[in-house]
Amino acid sequence: MTGRMPKGEADRTAALQRVVAVARGDEPADLVVRGGKVVNVLTGETYAADVAIAAGRVVGIGDYAAREEFDARGLFVAPGFVDAHIHIESTMLVPREFARAVVPRGTTTVVADPHEIANVLGADGIAYMLAATEGLPLDVFLMLPSCVPPTSLETPAARLDAEDLEPWISHPRVLGLAEVMHYAGVVDGEAAVLEKLALASEKRVDGHAPGLRGRALNAYIAAGIWSDHECTAVAEAREKLRKGMYVFIREGSVAKNLDALLPLVSRQNASRFGIVSDDRHPTDLAAQGHMDSLLRRAVALGLSPVTALQLVTLNPAQYFGWRDRGAIAPGYRADLVVLEDLKDFRVRAVWKGGRLVARDGRLVADLPASPRPPREAMHIGWERIGALDVPAAEGDSGWVIGLVPDQLATRALVLPLRVHAGRALADPARDIGKVAVVERHRATGNVGVGFVRGFGFQAGALASTVAHDSHNVIVVGADDGDMWAAVRALERMGGGMVAVRNREAVASVALPVAGLMAEEPYEAVASAMERLLEAARALGCSMADPFMALSFLALPVIPELRITDRGLVDVTRLRHIPVVAGIRRARGART
Amino acid sequence: MTGRMPKGEADRTAALQRVVAVARGDEPADLVVRGGKVVNVLTGETYAADVAIAAGRVVGIGDYAAREEFDARGLFVAPGFVDAHIHIESTMLVPREFARAVVPRGTTTVVADPHEIANVLGADGIAYMLAATEGLPLDVFLMLPSCVPPTSLETPAARLDAEDLEPWISHPRVLGLAEVMHYAGVVDGEAAVLEKLALASEKRVDGHAPGLRGRALNAYIAAGIWSDHECTAVAEAREKLRKGMYVFIREGSVAKNLDALLPLVSRQNASRFGIVSDDRHPTDLAAQGHMDSLLRRAVALGLSPVTALQLVTLNPAQYFGWRDRGAIAPGYRADLVVLEDLKDFRVRAVWKGGRLVARDGRLVADLPASPRPPREAMHIGWERIGALDVPAAEGDSGWVIGLVPDQLATRALVLPLRVHAGRALADPARDIGKVAVVERHRATGNVGVGFVRGFGFQAGALASTVAHDSHNVIVVGADDGDMWAAVRALERMGGGMVAVRNREAVASVALPVAGLMAEEPYEAVASAMERLLEAARALGCSMADPFMALSFLALPVIPELRITDRGLVDVTRLRHIPVVAGIRRARGART
After folding, report:
1. Which residues of B touch A321 (CB under 8 A)?
2. Hey, is B184 helix, strand or coil?
3. pLDDT digits (tens, 9 = 90+) for B157-203
């Protein structure tokens, strides 16, 4: 050594000397995974080979002595799985519990968009997610949320403009800007949106542009947006692919696109695809897993197992510019998964950076404690809140949000209202419930009230602090008293989801972290969620997951009718409308 | 605009607004290439489409109005070609003339290793190459030379250790560390080599490891080396590919590996291959072209044209982490080539960053003047130089460098010497010439003298300042007087190549830039080179290119016998040996 090099380089040199000595066979490896079939995603091959690991890296493929061995005979050795786009908040788990759930399923890297918590807590939400993902046996990278607040049709809890994101963009675990949902703003050249794109231009920018085609799509991509996970049809995905986008096929708990898009994947274009989960509910996570379940599904649909693995390893690595992740080769991080087969993708063991972190479905690594959430989740301005009354006259009709089974879209219905003593009421006999959004971040006392058809329940109320994207309290009920009881119950729990009957909470899930995430073990959260859904069914609710439907009722970007803390929103015209339709009845509204 | 963003971001935002406005169709594009078939290397498809360009970028594929149109009916539109590994010095052209030669052939980006000039001028050579590539209609990136000096068996003109390279590593046009030829040093963990790897660990490190396999290869790769362009056989290339290396198939003027390696390229692994030129002589460049000729050859050998194009566009872009180069899609740099077909790859027009730079084989862009070379190339220590005498006795045998036709390897021969008046002499009748290396950088007066068999010439002398890798003067001749005349001629020319007969230079190429590169137009250099080769033939020289053979005689890393300014080198044992074999004759030397 010349001694003139800076300390960092000298350390790197010393580390390299160890790696090289092990690789050439002069020192024993830390670990050899012996006798397995290696899935080589670089060449698309699978062959028998031993993998030697030292200093957290793969150092060699071949014949090596080691301090420790893992017998992988009859098993497959694959790179750790990558989820290139997930909202961890959708799992309702804090990152620590999320890691405990997904690492034993083979996930070693995720790229998370903290869009939900940032819409509640602003920059504090980003800070929390970075702190809560520190030291996990899972690498969690963040994309900076691009749409906080999501719209101007509700009272924003937080606001993140380009200059607010700027301090975060150079964080080593921040990879760029998360899905730019406001695609119209990009295409129209809105300065506030383009400023965020400019800020992230040296990093990655993820897209979100369902159905965008032609010149508008050109504009969106030319602005510097490199991926999309919202394709639902082959023609749309083909156009995006041809125009340079990485197409991440989303197979979430809600939206599932593998079936529709896999026919487009060929050997010639496979390197431009990925598979991502986007949203993954706690019950699915506990019962079916994470990327392993997506692999299972992709292979069941006919994708070659090695290609399927490429889509969740090498390809996201290429997209994000990681050179030492997503494959098994000398110099790569030793993020390995040992699998029983390439059909069920049952995971026997997982190494993260050369350390055994999961075995036979259980995490074996230590987990750091979760940090305290930055503040309490519930700030309801009771002193400013009135009743949930909707003044109306006998014979009035009103706008009613019509749920559509198995879809996020709603229909704007005009229906005769049940009116009593000058007020419109829920009407369980006609499956019309009252719905309210109660602002919970800044104690404004804002409450929006409306009606909804399709939940099917006969009594009681359901309420949740998970209500995209502003995550105010949303409550639906057959009875105002039960609705208030539900809101009060959530306030006591510090956020969460609840089912109420006769003024009593009959089931609940507490989500004290921003009203979005539980601190409980993931198994407990999943079973509490199941009990909650059962309670909803007991109230007469016929839907598979009424809380999911509820959580999207306040998202004023999906047509046709939504509700925010400021009232009903006609999404097609992007404006608020009153509940009582009155003279508008003639406008041709459907029933 | 909020006005709170830094100036750079504000400029980027304004630029994006223009791009987006053109892309969505509200403003005319600068240029539309209309009616051609676009080669989409992202999806492996070819289809009819118009390409719209604004602000130097592709903004859209589709229907656009533009200020200017190019009629590409009946033609193919492909991304500009990338040469991922070339030594520009091998073309004997300064970068300006190199650009003039290759841009009309479709090359828009090259990654150059200034190994030769750095071995002559050290860091000044790097500075010169960066200055000389500024403002060209060709993007030239550099890899920092990793082997200066190449060995310790000669007097080094320059020395670049890690700390000398450190100031250059963050230059925006420096992509990393160039081919690490000292692979034994890497595998053995030599600190001086690993320090260079550590320095470049955040960037790319190119490899050069002919024949390296097994654990030694693991060690080499694990040290952080990501590519290799020295594979000559399928088995070797397959192993390197499997172990994560990008395999750049080299098809140079000297070494040609396409034929041997193309059978390995499949749709599954094609994305891990490239094609590079490495060394390209001026006559080949002028007569056959650059990457276009490599494409022609690859397709003639059976590679699909679109795959061939991927190997010289998208794949090098992926390797180097360029996200906006190597394909035609919105947001990508408008580096385009219009081709007559995908068989002969005849180039009709080339755009660089949206600017038409070549048309019908001629450069149409302005070129900046070449910078002055940092210093004179010739520093011969005449006052310290003696004669070229080799003292010997009647009946002595001596070590003779035996050329092998069409190979760089030589054989170590022991042959009876022709001795007169106590000195060994050249012996044209037996095709034995005298060879000498005269140190020319530091005026040391060092001269190494030996004998060589195989040039075949009968009279005169040939000399050159291109003599890998230290680039001293190498001279071979039938007669000491002609040899000195040749060295004197080179000194007068300021470096170059010369053929001498009867003490007169009969043909020459002046290479005043470091004794390696001409400042003349490339056509003039190519014809001067042809005249020089003709002159060599007139001297009786039967080889196709004796100057090429000459230039490798001083490279003491290729077996078996070489010569440096310090004398003969037995490369197998890495040590100097005397000319007169004397008592060593019994050692079983071959004749």
Report:
1. 321, 323
2. helix
3. 899 999 999 999 999 999 999 999 999 999 999 999 999 999 999 99
CB contact under 8 A, A226 and B323: yes
User: pTM of the prediction?
Assistant: 0.94
pLDDT band at B556 (very low <50, low <70, confident <90, very high): confident
Sign of CA dihedral A245, A250, A254, A259: positive
Q: Select from A177, A188, A268, A315 the residue whose CB has the most chain B CBs within 10 Å, as the one to mutate to test that interface.
A: A268
Which residues are A477's β-sheet partners?
A434, A461
Convert the pLDDT of each residue in A225-245 to its tens digit: 999 999 999 999 999 999 999
User: Looking at CA atoms only, how far is residue B20 from chain A in angstroms?
Assistant: 5
3-state secondary structure A458-514: CCCEEEECCCCCCCCEEEEECCHHHHHHHHHHHHHHCCEEEEEECCEEEEEEECCEC
Cα–Cα distance measured from residue B419 to residue B428, given in angstroms and rounded to the nearest whole number: 13
Q: Which of these, B560, B526, B565, B539, lies nearest to B388 by C-alpha position?
A: B565
CA dist B281 to A238, A350, A469, B87, B535, Å? Answer: 43, 52, 63, 10, 18
pLDDT per position as a tens digit, A103-138: 999 999 999 999 999 999 999 999 999 999 999 999
The string of DSSP codes covering A8-51 is: HHHHHHHHHHHHHHHHHTSS-BSEEEESPEEEETTTTEEEE--E
Is the ipTM reported for this complex over the cut 0.90?
yes
Report residue A138 as tokens.
């899972």
A222 and B20 within 8 Å at the Cβ level: the answer is yes
Tell me which residue in A20, A194, A214 faces B17 most closely, judged by beta carbons: A194
Query: Which of B1, B5, B242 is the closest to A40 by Cβ?
Result: B242
Contact B162 A241 (CB under 8 A): no
Using the predicted structure, report yes or no on whether residue B309 has a pLDDT greater than 90: yes
* Contact yes or no for A198 and B13 at CB 8 A: yes
Task: Report the residue from A2, A62, A218 with minimal CB separation from B218.
Answer: A62
| Number of Cβ pairs < 8 A linking chain A and chain B | 246
Burial class (CB in 10 A: 0-12, 13-18, 19+), B316: buried
Q: What is the mean pLDDT of residues A460-482?
A: 96
Q: How would you class B3 by CB atoms within 10 Å of its CB: exposed for 0-12, middle for 13-18, buried for 19 or more?
A: exposed
User: Using an 8 Å Cβ cutoff, are B402 and B453 in contact?
Assistant: yes
Structure tokens at A223: 């602005």
